[in-house]
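Give me the fold.
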Amino acid sequence: MALPQFLLLGGCLLTDKSDPALTIPDHYTYGPRSERAAEAALPPLDWWRAFRSRELSAIIEEAREANLDIAAAVARVVQADAQARITGAALLPTLDADGSATQSKSSANTGGGARRNLFSASLAASYEIDFWGKNRAALRALEEGAVAARYEREVVGMTVVAAAANAYFQVLTAQDRLAAARENLTAATRVLNLINQRVQAGTASQLDISQQESLVNTLRAAIPQLEQTARQNRVALAVLVARPPENVFVRGGTLRSIAIPRVTPGLPSELLGQRPDIRQAEALLAAADANVENARAQFFPSITLTGEGGYQSLVLRTLFTPQSQFYSIAAGITQPIFDGGRLLGNLDLQKGRQDELLQNYRKSVISGFADVENALDDIRKTTQREQLQREVVTSSRRAFDISEERLRGGTVDLITVLQTQQTLFNAQDALALARLARLQAIVSLYQALGGGWLPKPEPEQIASIPMPPVPPVDRDAR
């Protein structure tokens, strides 16, 4: 029953605040060790400009302005604010105006068939005294939910920006791979013509021609797939900027024109205020704390004041006279006695939800550290991979040029020429993919660090902060 719970809970209404109890590391494994280096390492709001691509900047800024996922997140902020206002109305009295005019006629057999008029105009007010803080806790829970909705909007914005950058880099990668494939097709066709000349001279066989033709056809067959990949990533960009694919033109170019920014992670403790998903989890946890407080307060009595006053008269012309005045004032108290365990079940539900969100908050913090560590390690490894792969391409090209020259002089076997071609073609393709992986790792680090939004707003301030300003789209860059 609820009454014993009321007696037991009277002294602990405002307890049970969540304690994340997290250990924050002093530094990242691959990050700077000094605080001075960390202070200068926070990502800027427009971090994508560090890649020094006007077209990329224009695409990202248009996505931030027009993306439909961001628009939906903004609509959820509006809903959360409205829900908080609805719940906050319980803290204020309600006032209703009522006016009526009634005419009645009694039965001729019982009341002589007399007609009777009744005119009334009144105001009715009611107010629940929030003595135990039940309504204040409910309002605070929804205000924290509105804060979480704003952080969610920033999470969506960061995701959209990262997706736009990665899609653009994939377009450039596909163009680089296409250019290399067409160049290699030209080179392979040139070698095939040399082999045909040797066949006519009797120094090569049809098997040699067949092997080279197989390589030429393989290169030719790879081109449509690369063209399709480029088109698919252009379509992905069109979805991100909320435009039909037919109306989106991406000039692109080459990954070699993209600058490689230097990104350092700062201090791990700064990540707690820098990442909006962590701040969102924190706000949701605060809302859960308030919901637990609200569930506890429901065990206590509800005290309600009501009042009504106005005028009543049988004749309209005397309605607003002192003799027609009436009023009533009442006070009521309601204490739950037996509800079948509903209130206790609600308290257990809210405490379970509170514990779930506490674990989600802990997970979001730990995942944030892990995301930064993984991104830093990816940057380190992909940078090494790109450098090594560039050396592979250099040596492979040198080997192919030598083998082609010797083929012209007839001093090399065709198997060696075939092998050097395949090695060069595979190395060029792998180099383009390695550079893409490096750029994507840099984007992942920016995203893991919470780049692209105004960091560290206080929860009581963010509810009144408008959406971050969106820079104008540089349409001339496209």
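Residues 1-15, 456-478 have pLDDT under 50 and may be disordered.
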